[in-house]
Design goal:
This protein is 70% helix and 0% strand. It has 6 helices and no strands. It starts with 5 loop residues before the first helix and ends with a helix.
Length: 106
């Protein structure tokens, strides 16, 4: 995870968070996945708080994906696919967001 702007890092975490909560639950494995992602992005406490507070199931993922820079877009599909299976199973709602992201990036 490199060459992303701070804004892209925030949006990236929010998109991944949206995938993780799309089944209505943020389990321990999913929370750990999100924490690891924020570690990889080297987010400080303030940036983590800002990213986490913006995670919302009803947020239009299209806007967030559209606002990402090229570096973030290049890493997004793999990241959402990993997130969808973070708890060992992929729900229908998680699959729907992954497919939406895939179509937005193609």
């Amino acid at each position: 995870m490199h060459s992303m702007t701070p804004e892209d890092c925030t949006r990236f975490v929010q998109i991944i968070g949206q995938v993780l909560i799309s089944d209505g639950v943020l389990g321990d494995a999913e929370r750990e996945h999100l924490d690891r992602l924020m570690d990889e992005l080297k987010l400080d406490d303030a940036a983590r708080k800002a990213a986490l507070s913006g995670i919302n199931m009803d947020s239009p993922v299209e806007e967030r994906v559209g606002a990402l820079g090229p570096a973030a877009k290049g890493q997004l599909l793999e990241a959402v696919e990993r997130a969808a299976g973070a708890d060992g199973e992929t729900s229908k709602s998680e699959t729907m967001i992954v497919e939406k992201v895939r179509s937005l990036l193609s």
